[in-house]
Specification:
The chain is mainly α. It is built from 18 helices and no strands. It is a multi-pass membrane protein.
Length: about 425
Amino acid sequence: MKFFKDIVGAAWFKISSLNSFAILLRIGFGLVISKILAIYVGPAGMALVGNLRNFQTSLESFATLGFQNGIIKYTAQFKEDNEQFKKLISTVTITILTFMVLFGIGLFVFKEAITSYLFSSENEFEIIIKATIFSLPFYGFSLFFTSLINGLEKYKKVVYISIIGNIIGFVFSLFLVLNYNILGALLAMVLAPTANFFVAFFFVCKEIKLFQFITLKSFDKSILKNLSSYSAMALFSALTGPFIYIFLRNHLIDTAGIDTAGYWESMSRISSYYMLFVSSLMSMYFLPQLAISNGEETKSVFHNYFKTIVPVFLIGIIAIYFFRNIIISILFTAEFQPVSKLFFWQLMGDFFKVCSWILALHFLAKKQTLAYFVTEIFSYFTLISVGYFAINYFDAEGAVMAHAITYFCYFLVLLTYFRKQLF
């Protein structure tokens, strides 16, 4: 009984309850889109969607120069200091705007090469990269505005942004997939998130007089320098992680065929749905808590996480494993049945990933750049080396084996590093 009382009484649970509707709505929409994708594009189309999804993950950090976690931290820190807060907003706005122009030009120049790498086609899907260039500023500033609201601890408004954005994105995605099949699915992934810009802009203007805060003279190099630590960490992960997954997926296509790669992507989509519950709490609750905590407070945050979040997650993935065949039949079609054999290793890897997340988040919250780089390089090296050889022998199952082995080793490394804060 004490275990359940601890969970219900926890601050994260109250935020999670508030956020649950938004997450369930997003998952519900995702389930419908997954079913439609399974019917209209099949496993082969799912593999292409996976490559674009990984590319978008990379762009998410590049769109804000990797400042997101830093924006949350310094907004929480400066929200009572009007002058510093003004400098923060001005510095981030001017920097992101300048970078967007340069980055957009770069994407345009190399659009053929990017299209070929992602889709093995130089012309057919080039419009996807052009659409990405168009949507990038909207996407970047929607993330910036949402991070500001998150740092101000206006959690309800963060949830509202998510709900409204998901509804608009779902309707838009449904229209494009039903009318344009695989091209529509890819366009929807790129264009649908731009709806969040208008929603986030509306809510951030309710909190602060945004345009009065943005002035050229308020640009502060010292704030930019502080944010650069977050930028270096986030951009490294944004550049390395997604492209390793694209590399492994392309290797799987070459080794076992595009349908097999589609099975792996389908498993990844299922994983992304249930991982939403934890990842949303990471940015919304635990990052701000770690940013302002020290010593015993940090230990308390860690203990709270392992006593409540981890057991709940473990119960959830055990249930998912036993109902995996039902989940596949609901989400996909009969031709996706081979996905069933991927669940064990994927769920095991996700368990160790969740155990690792809170510890890795401490690196970001406290700007421990060197430790972050060393552990990330270790995990990526493990993933690409184990993944490459495991795929040669076990096809898609080798990819999820590599996922489990990587996060098990990563967790052991972090456990050793943070042993004093944990024990």
